[in-house]
Amino acid sequence: MLRALFRRLTKLLLWLAALSVLLVLILRWVPPPFTALMVERKIESWTGGESIDLQRSWQPWNQLPDDLKMSVIAAEDQNFADHWGFDIAAIRAAFAHNERGGSLRGASTLSQQVAKNLFLWSGRSWLRKGLEVWFTGWIELLWPKQRILEVYLNSVEWGSGIFGAEAAAQHHFGVGAPYLSVNQASQLAAVLPNPRQWDAGQPGPHVGSRAAWIRKQARQLGGSDYLNKLRASDAR
Fold it and tell me: For the whole prediction, is pTM greater than 0.85?
């Protein structure tokens, strides 16, 4: 009986694994209609007794401004074009920093954040981290870098109920995502560590200083040349 139960459990896990890979493959071309994080926020609003209106409107790659793409890369994952989903050097640096104490530092790449936002729940556990590694690996294997960044920019949280670049641009600046200025793009990237507490449209001193740093980093990375590097890596 135990062997039969084990075989059934193994078969179920294999089916779930295959379905997860198929889902990742489909989303290479199909815009995700929603994300796990959006569902989580909606459930939080129901259990907390507070209504939340989720805002999100998909914008394809060629409608997303280069300044926003580079601002997010500069702020969140400067080795995005070179790694395969995991930035080992950043992980080691974060581990060393956290060992010394003080505020915790993360080292999630854009690919890991896409995996988490699309498929998983918030929080820290070995199970969630293991699933994050699983989905990140398949995303990196099956999606080009441009697709990863496109999905990230259309899915990341930019305020309470505000998801994706288009909704964020409309909410914070009253313009569509294609019309964001370089300053506005850097301010959006600057609040990503804490988008429900910091305001991109009315930045305080910390966000303003971080936005200026992001603009400098984006220039040093090469701007459009860096995005060309993404296209070259996708072509290989």
Answer: yes
